[in-house]
Automatic annotation (TrEMBL):
GO MF annotations, alphabetized: adenosylhomocysteine nucleosidase activity; methylthioadenosine nucleosidase activity
Lineage: Bacteria, Thermotogati, Deinococcota, Deinococci, Thermales
Organism from which the protein derives: Thermus aquaticus (strain ATCC BAA-2747 / Y51MC23)
Tree of life domain: Bacteria
Top enzyme class: hydrolase
Name this polypeptide is given: adenosylhomocysteine nucleosidase
EC number, UniProt record: 3.2.2.9
Amino acid sequence: MRVFFAAEPEEAQALREALGAATPLEAPFPLHLGQGVLVAETGVGKVAAAMAVAYVLARHVPEESFFLGVAGALNPALKALDLLLAERAVQWDVDLTPFGRAPGETAFGVRFFPSDPGLLARAEAAARALGFPCRRGVVATGDRFLADPEEASRLRALHGADAVEMEGGAALMVAYRFRHPMALLRVVTDGAGEGAAMDFQAFLKAASRRLGLLARALAAYTEEG
């Protein structure tokens, strides 16, 4: 079984419709079953994402999963509705530097949490087949919607991040601890600076539709090709 996680209701609804996941399951968050797939609506933020991922991995033991959603661009080369394939993610609001840790480094010594390389390659192939502009990069995750251009520049310089969002680093951290293959995929809605909130709302529906198409392609994948 494959799981598709998304934080926002619009994102999750697009995934449910694309994947035919119409059967609700009992869970502390919206969770729906389809043919060989689960769609989990985690809610916004790191705690919500981590809780949902841990619950699904422990309760349903899926083979692999994808965390999909939207993000604000830090890399000026990224445009609205471009797809960012996150090779790794860092929690930019984790700060243990007084104890000699690097910015974003967690207490157990990991700073960047990786996407599964095989799943990421599969997502890249699916995106290109669909004609979606895409690139690989780094995601910065934090529990605050970023709408400050100076802070956006700081995060890009500090972490080499291409985009910023509120769940991916936490989701990949849980997957890392569970030794579970997961890939983080983000569609750009805004530039994480002035006007970010308005851009986010303007592009959320279109980005969610794009995520649904990508999820459908990924759900159709078989080992035989």
